Each structure stands twice: as C-alpha cells, then as structure tokens.
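Components:
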Amino acid sequence: MHRVKITDTSLRDAHQSLWATRMTTEDMLPILEHIDNIGYHSIEVWGGATFDVCIRYLNEDPWERLRTIRKEIKSTNLQMLLRGQSLVGYTHYPDDVVEKFIYKAAENGIDIFRVFDALNDIRNLETSLQTIKKTGKHAQACVVYTISPVHSIEHFVNTALSLKDMGADSICIKDMAGLLSPYVAYELVALLKEKVKLPIQLHTHYIGGLAIAALLKATEAGVDIIDTATVPMAFGSSQPPVETIVRALQDTEHDTGLKLHELFEVASHFEKIRKHKGFERGVTRITDMKVFEHQVPGGMISNLFSQLEEQNASHRMEEVLQEIPYVRADMGYPPLVTPTSQIIGIQAVLNVLMGERYKMCPGEVKDYVRGFYGKPPMPINPEIKSLIIGDEEVIETRPADLIAPGWEKGKKEIGDMAKSEEDILTYILFPQVALKYFAYRDEMGADEIAPILTTEIENTNINEKKPIKEKIIPTAKKRSNQKGDEEMNFAEIKELMMLLNSTDIGEIELEKEDFRLSLRKTNAEGDNKNKSNRTVTSKVTANEDDLEVNENIEEVVSPMVGTFYAAPSPDAPPFVKVGDQVDRGQTLCIVEAMKLMNEIKAENAGVVVDILVDNAEPVEYGQPIFLIEKE
Ligand code: CO
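Structure:
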C-alpha cells in the first residue's frame, strides 16, 4: 500500500490565492484544533505573502500569529513557504538576516521549511538550506515548474539533484501557475523518484482544471505528498479541494486515510467566514483559462488587475497579458513566481501604460537585469539589456555575496521601537510598513489591535451601526483643514471601504464630484435613511485653493497611484528639500507602487519651492507632489 499524504494549504496559499491573503488569526482560531486532528501530513500556515499582509493590512503581528497557531496545532507539522534569500519579502536579504529569520521561525513553531528560488538559481538557496539543516527542521527544496525553451524535464531533474547535494530532505515540484499537465506530471514524478530518491511532493494550482488529474497521475507515479485546500477555498487560482482527492483515492492502494465527514466540518467553518466577509469562491474565467497561452499564475492575474484598477486602466488587462510573454522572453524566461512575477508583470504594465517598451523601468527591473536576483534561465536580450542599464556590468557572483550584513544595522536603527528580536526582523524586512505598524501598535495598546473587525462585528446586528463606526474610524487617519472638514485621501477611503465592505452590514458608496468625496454607508436593505453621512474633502482641493498661478512653476505629478517616500530609506536624508536646486534627471522622491520602488526624476532643472505630500503618505495618479520653479 502506498498511502498518499496531504498538506493542507487553507491557512496560507489558498486564502492568498483567493482572498487576497486577508484571513485573520481570529478567523482561524475556532477550527485549528479540529484541523490538527484531521491527519494531515502538514499544514501550511506561514510565509509567502502572509507576513507582509499581516503588518500592512491586518494590523497583526505575523510572529504572534505563528505562536498562536502553534499553541492550538500540537501534533501536525507546521509548514511555511520561504522565498530563499528573499525570505518572505521581495528582495534579497543579507545572509545574517536569513539565518536569524530561519532560527526565529523554527523557534516560533515551523517544522517544515519549503524553500524556493524564482529563477531556480540554487546559489540563492545555499544559506537558507544550510541554516534549516542547522535548526534540525525539515528542509524541503522546490523545483519551480514552468514551460519555456530551456525548461526541459532534464533541467528539473538536474536542479533537484543539485538541491539534494545541498542537503534537501525532500523535493517539491512547485507549479504555481497550474501548467503541469497530467502526463508530464507522471513523467516528471517518476523520473524524480528514480533519480533523486527523496520524498517528492507536488504543489499545483487548480486554475485551468489540470490539477486534479495531475495529482492523480503523480500519485500513480509514486508521489509521496500532495497539496490541497478545503473546498470553500479551493478551485480557481487556489489548490484543488481535499474532499475530491480523498474521495478519488478512497479504497484504492493510495487511500489517504482522511475522513470526509471531518473535512466537511472544517469546510463549513471556512464557508461561514467566506460568506461573512464577502470573499469570492474559486472560479475560472476565460482570462484565467488562457493561462495555457500566457502562463500567468492566477495570483498574479488578480494582482495585475488591482494594479491596473489603481491606475484606472483595468480595461487594458488583455494588452498586459499579451505583453507579458514578450517581456518574459526578453528577460531570459524566468518562471513567473514572486518576485519575478512582479518584475515581469510591472514591466509589462508600464510598457502598456507608457505606450513604449522599457521607457520606464523600476529599480527592481534594473536590478534583475544587473543580476541581483540571480542568473536568468537564458541570457537577457542584449538590446533590451543595454536599453535598461546601458553598459553597466552584470554581476556573476551569488547576489547575496555583495550584500553587507544587516542584523546589527537594523537593530540599531529601530532601537526601542522593537520589543523583541522578531520585531527587529519585521523591521529589516519591511522597514516602512513595520514603522507604521509599530506606531499603530503603540498607539492602540496591544489588547486593542487584533479585533478591529471580528469580535466587535460578530455581535452587531444591522441596526446598530455605531460600534463599527467607532471601531473603524480611528484606524483611518483623519486631518482637518481650515474649514474643519475631515480630510481623507483616496487610499484611506479605499481602506475604509474595504474594511466596511468585508462585513455583512451594508454597502459603501463612494462618489467623486469636483474633488469632493462623499462616503455614504447604507444598511443591508439599502435604506438610505439614518445613514452615516460623511463628507470628506481630498487634500488636492485644499492645495488647489492655495495655489497662485505662476507660469514658471512646474508641478511634478505622481505618475502612478502609490506611496510617497521623500528619502531612499527611513534613516536617510530626503532626496531634496524646499529651496534645493535640482538638475534635470535628478531623483526627487520614490513612489512605491505595485510593491516596487519607482524613482521620480526632475524633468527640468530648477528650484524646489514646495513639497506637497508628507513622507509615507499615499499619492494618486496625477496628484501634484512637488512645485519646481524652472530656471
Ligand atoms: Co502556490
């Protein structure tokens, strides 16, 4: 008998794929003990985007989440997804930070580390694999699956063999786009079993519908462990449902041994959460199904969608999807997975929005071309390379060899604001977001942080709107202008809408008329009476009133929706101050958009007469950020 073991992804990949990673620890808590008793091989609960989203959007401490889960899940292995040298971020970190992070993750409860590199550049896995081995935990190394002229079955098997030499305890085939067809799965698993002689796990995504068949063929070929999710979070861009797989293998030599009625209890819990918060089911649209043509993973499609939506360009999705294969070929066929999916995706978006290829390239794209993410599977198109970085040299070494140690520096920078070594890591990984989160945490007091949405709203019926309003408004920053109107910007309003929309209580409408935004909340019956009416004025209005017309003054506007940063890092001096003389092409600030740092440069030489946005504040497309008096 060859029982297939199952990893449950519901608490990480599944909600990352379908619910924009928005499941809170409170959503999980009531069902954790039950999940522990299912008999899973492991439960993926941490890593990937969950860390970032916890501090950025949920006001949760990701380390605290891990400890809470560990307390409830006593017997099943806890698993995390680690992006090799990028840990749970989007850029390479120094070796000492990678080591510290892994030790802390192990200490807080991780048993199995699944580690991958987007380029299958095994040098980027050296430090993490070595460190995981030192902690005594299980090191599972990934072969990232994709289709391209270089990605043959032999390429994957050779990568797996090298990973075994580096100490991997098991190998995972990571098919993030759901491209692995059943017969290729059979061939690949059979060959890996024969040549590599380590436990083999298959991680795939449902999207085009190949996944269930791929898991079954992989099972026939001898796969040891497969990944599935509970049915309310399965299908679409997520994993296939565990219930289907359990049933399909029932009473065969591969029987999983899991009990359907117990799985349905878990499913009922998450279905309740799904309905309560208004999250979508996993579905496959035509654009998604076209993954067979464009190879873009489901998670990346929804990212692209929201990025385009932010830039008011969601109608250009089809063009972006057509552009992606060109950019990917130019860039040497990287598999599309974090962070290469963002790098290729954003470049495709910019190519489409700018109407010209590579006219604007964010720092991350340049760094990719310089070799700072590792070696692309094939050489980068030389013409495009010189267009992007000119005659700069490309590095040949392991990228992290060039990164100075970061732990002591980060520790010193954050000082007292860090309450633990975990806090220091959070800061080193996401400096700007961590500062905001720590400040929020201090302001709110530890007890009040988590239950912004859950417990309070759970017991609120639709006629009692007050508790929600009181609970939520303080989390969105308000300012007052001279007229005494409350001011919120679009990003804050959007955040508020998201919070309110994720309850069953009613609907939010947002109107934009002549720079005035009115925010209106109606109850579930759509009754407008007794609505809590709030009229807010965007910051743009106030600035416009104040402006005198001066022909010589040039407005530098934000080319995209994002977050304004006056300096390259929190401790660095600002790029420019009021009164500074700037040259044409000089960097004025950074606008972080779509998770990338975009340097905004002066189009003309002149003197900075005003900076219209505060550091770390959201900016809109076309919003004036600098006033420069031209020479
Ligand atoms: Co995945």
